[in-house]
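pinging the channel bc i need a second pair of eyes. not urgent but kinda urgent?? the chain im working w is below, pasted from the shared doc
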Amino acid sequence: MNRETVRIRRPDGVELVAVRGDLTAERVDAIVNAANEQLQHGGGVAGAIVRRGGPSIQEESRRIAPVPTGSAKATRAGLLRCRYVIHAVGPIWRGGDSGEPDLLASAVQSALRVAVDLGCASVSMPAISSGIYGFPVDRAARVIVGAAVTFLQNHPGTCLREVRFCNLDERTAFEIEAALSEIAQDSAPVSR
């Protein structure tokens, strides 16, 4: 079962939520897949999404691939509880001097832009690039949360009411919670 650990309400009413649990079990309008450019969903988060959501997600992904690093595209969600899967392509970590933080921020913001274009009120995303792509988890968490906050600041009044960060891995979940707690000092916390 998914467990919320940090919930922050921004002054504009949008809530940012850290969740420990299974992304594929989230009850939101869209979940974000940590995808590769060819949208081949074999392992990790992507594999779990297709296993639970069914082969239609992979079939539709083949039709919209490739997706450049730093970008995102959506498919329907098959058998998942959500309506859409937004496939965001984060960078492979190459030491940090190849624009990885900017590409990761772009992937997050692209995913949120797609969510808004689809009319989503709620979206849940994992720590993109922090798994097999090797982006250091603590740095990825801060980039991901920071990019989401920047997107919301730059796009006030969108349909988004809740942005969730859902991770099964304890360390990753902890780092996302820490990144959210840092921004909580500038927001009104709903609960912790």
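so Residues 188-192 have pLDDT under 50 and may be disordered. and Strands lie at 3-9, 15-20, 30-35, 72-76, 84-89, 122-125, 162-167, 188-191. — does that match what u expected or am i reading it wrong
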